[in-house]
Design brief:
Layout: H1 4-8, H2 11-28, E1 35-36, E2 41-42, E3 45-47, E4 52-53, E5 58-64, E6 69-70, E7 75-81, E8 86-87, E9 92-95, E10 130-132, E11 137-138, E12 143-145, E13 149-150, E14 155-156, E15 161-162, E16 170-173, E17 178-182, H3 186-195, H4 202-207, H5 215-220
Parallel strand pairs: 1-4, 2-5, 3-5, 4-6, 5-7, 6-8, 7-9, 7-10, 8-11, 9-12, 10-13, 11-14, 12-15, 14-16
Antiparallel strand pairs: 16-17
The chain binds coenzyme A (COA).
Length: 225
């Protein structure tokens, strides 16, 4: 007798499972212009408008704001993502936590999630909510630990391992990630943050779209409609 897992690995069966899953997710989110590639595994996810997930993406227990997108082979769990954020390929966000100061690192001793575990109750929260702001860019192959907050407008350089919260409009990189620079001056950052343009209506953004090409013009414009 073949095992169920063997059957699920037959290429046609795999394709069929993913195809069916995609149809269910698209139907559930009808009217939101959700764009889904192939081989995605989407658990509980609250989508906004105009989201794009390319291929082979795993997302569970997440929300994702209008216009934000995720590129291929990325894995995101327990994370709230703002609007207009851009997540690259091979990115991992919201990693689980094992306490490092107990005798054993194995969850059998501190959670009771599985029948064969020893703990009678959960002694430790393995997953904390991660927050990704609005207008954030996350470079390829980066890792963001669970429970962190990445501020609005921040940039995570390719290959970074982020272990601490990231301030708004900071560009961070390296292992562990450190601030490389800020996108704008502190004064400009405060003013852009104050405008919260990502919450404007699409009509208002469209009307002012050319001003997004120059920070100076954007901030000095008295005609932001
Ligand atoms: C972080 C990043 C945005 C910086 O780009 P930039 O604004 O043009 O800045 P610079 O190239 O001038 O780099 C600024 C500093 O950061 C360093 N740096 C750049 N990329 C880095 C990285 N990935 N890791 C560590 N340091 C990095 C530079 O060496 C430079 O250091 P210096 O000031 O000591 O010379 C860019 O390098 C990056 O990683 N982009 C992500 C690309 C990507 O993943 N694309 C696919 C998804 S769309």
């Amino acid at each position: 007798m073949p095992l169920l897992s063997d059957i699920k690995n037959i290429p046609f069966v795999k394709w069929l499972i993913f195809f069916r899953h995609k149809q269910i997710v698209l139907k559930r989110n009808a009217g939101k212009n959700l764009m889904l590639g192939k081989d995605n595994s989407v658990g509980t996810v609250k989508f906004g408008l105009n989201n794009l997930l390319t291929d082979n993406i795993t997302m569970s227990n997440c929300s994702i704001g209008d216009f934000s997108y995720v590129n291929r082979n990325s894995s995101i769990s327990n994370t709230d993502i703002g609007k207009f954020s851009c997540i690259g390929s091979n990115v991992s966000i919201g990693l689980g936590i094992h306490p490092t100061d107990l005798v054993s690192i194995h969850p059998a001793f501190y959670t009771n999630k599985k029948d064969h575990y020893f703990a009678e109750k959960d002694h430790f929260q393995e997953y904390e909510k991660t927050k990704i702001g609005n207008d954030v860019w996350i470079g390829n192959n980066s890792i963001i630990m669970g429970g962190l907050t990445i501020g609005d407008g921040a940039v995570i350089a390719a290959g970074a391992v982020v272990t601490k919260n990231v301030e708004p409009y900071a560009v961070v990189g390296g292992i562990p990630a450190k601030v490389l620079k800020y996108r704008f001056t502190q004064n400009e950052i405060e003013r852009i943050k104050g405008l919260e343009w990502w919450n404007w209506s699409v009509e208002k953004i469209k009307l002012n779209k050319d001003k997004f090409l120059s920070v100076e013009e954007f901030l000095n414009s008295s005609e932001l409609k």
